Amino acid sequence: MNIKIRLWKIKDKTELAENLNNMNIMNNLRDGLPYPYTEDNAEDFIRAMLSADKDKTFAFAITLDGKVIGSIGVFRQDNIHFRTAEMGYYIGEKYWGNGYMTEAVKLACDFVFENTDIIRIYAEPFAYNSASCRVLEKAGFVCEGILKSNAYKNGNIVDMKMYAIVKQ
After folding, report:
1. How far, in Å, are 40, 127, 155 from residue 16 at the CA level?
2. Which domains, from first to last, does the chain contain?
3. pLDDT, tens digit (0-9, with 9 covering 90-100), for 136-157
């Protein structure tokens, strides 16, 4: 397994669109992403990530042997939480269950902790997304609690879990 994270390139738009244009993935992400997800949508996203504030947005392509298979981002929070960041991620469905996402989460956390003053990274997966919860646990995150009735997704009120990892 040769999982790496790297900055986005405009040429990644085809692989990004191929992976994200999937309702099984969209059902586990926050709302706001277009579906179907096109190469134009992917290019817009990549351009936004490349032009974002480099001290607040850490957005990476996840690659397997050089091929883009997913996305991971860590986003610094504001005000008194400026040393805390939220993580979001997904990986193409055909790559699920191989440990790739866990490795990418570890790589992203290592990068942020080694290169910034951020001391806490958190993620809030839907409670029903046991695979995402397992990824976080295997990457060293601790479940800090359940956020009851915290979101409205696909016509349902759902719980989320709060996971976090703190810089050692």
Report:
1. 10, 26, 27
2. 3-166 (3.40.630.30)
3. 999 999 999 999 999 999 999 9
